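Morning run. Coffee first, then this:
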Amino acid sequence: MTTSVHGPAEEAAGPQGPPTGPPRSRRALVAGSVGNFIEWYEFGVYGCFATVIAATFFTPEGGGEAEALVRTYASFALAFFFRPVGAALFGRLGDRAGRRPTLILVVLLMTAATTLIGLLPSYAVIGAAAPWLLTLLRIVQGLSAGGEFGGAVSLMTEFAPPGRRGLYGAWQSFTVALGLLGGVGAAAGLATVLSEAQLAAWGWRVPFLLALPMGLGALWLRLRLEESPSFRRAPGVPDDAGAPGGGPDGGRRGAAAGAAADGPALPGVPGAGRAVRAPAGETVRAIVLGAGRLMGWSAAGYTFLVVLPSYLQSVLDASFRQALTASVLANAGFAAAILPAGALSDRVGRRAVMVTGAVVAAVTAFPLLDLVRDPAAPTAAKGLAVCAAGAVVGLMAGPGPAMLAEMFPTGVRYTGLGLAYALSNAVFAGCAGLVITYAVERTGEADIPAYYVAVTCAASALALAGLRSDGHRRALRD
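And here it is:
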């Protein structure tokens, strides 16, 4: 496997509409996306029910509501800090054993942890064990989520037809929006049909339990999945490392590939550990740079899409339904922009689209927050502004997965892009709720969310400015 900077240029594939291509590519798109949907569905639910979860698991006698909310977001952030661990662990496995078996394991862990949160006894029932058990399940979710992104993006971009890598990768971000919308929609629906007392007593558990049938569906899709063409081309992968159970859709190179191996195989893992790897220093630099390029997407995304409901409730005294409405509008704008942004990046390049998103987010952060908290502003204007804020994040999220995939060769792609994404989310997204809530409580400064978005997006724009303008036209590195 070569570690050259770029392969041959790819040809444009015509107008960018809904993904087309071989059936295997479409199957990979669906199977890669579905696990991401479940992951972000749970995070949307957790964000919407943060105040309820705080009262259920983090409010012993004598504890205050603000203290409980901070502890809830600390548990939220902890799961994010285990994402890089999961990205490294599962990324290593996925770069050695294959994308398919690793993604199957990841979706099993993710589904089990989310379902168990819905069954977990409260603080009133089991005492101090409740927050510890919740935190343990959040750690498992963090590990599995860390392994999900790198594998799914590797799979989807490696299967993408020429000239459509940005659009195919954008489906990973699109399922983030769908998952968040699904979680927020489930919370909003329950808030409509149940009383606040019913929500607090048992209603909040229902969305977590729904992860079980969704996870079983995801497992079925991934069991039918084939290995990616790029991984099958990697030196040392045998001919039967393709479709489930091997067969004619497996690898294509025969014994000559095995002769190119440069190290011993892992016991019980065909072809494991034998592909040529990029230099470690080069990979580490790419991971750090990739995390910096995603900084604005991570920070603005979580501030506008996840933290906003609790912020509106705790700081601006909005009702639970008002906060959920704002979150639905923001996520709707986010979802609407992602696929067009990914498709546009296949035409004009990742740099142009992502830098535009980061700059616009940085410039509009303060005016947006001023409008949202202005009691005299029309409700329609507030809704439109929140929706537009989500769309700006979508400009960064659409091309982001393909941009990361293009930074790493096949032998370290799962690990490298997974770690870059996980580190960015751990530092700039997972901590968003904790940092914003704590800073507002300590300083009384209501502009903290705007400062957070403006600074991180400005830094991200600088990192993105170094992208190659023609990177979208070049083949993925083998």
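DSSP finds 21 helices and no strands in the chain. Good start to the day.
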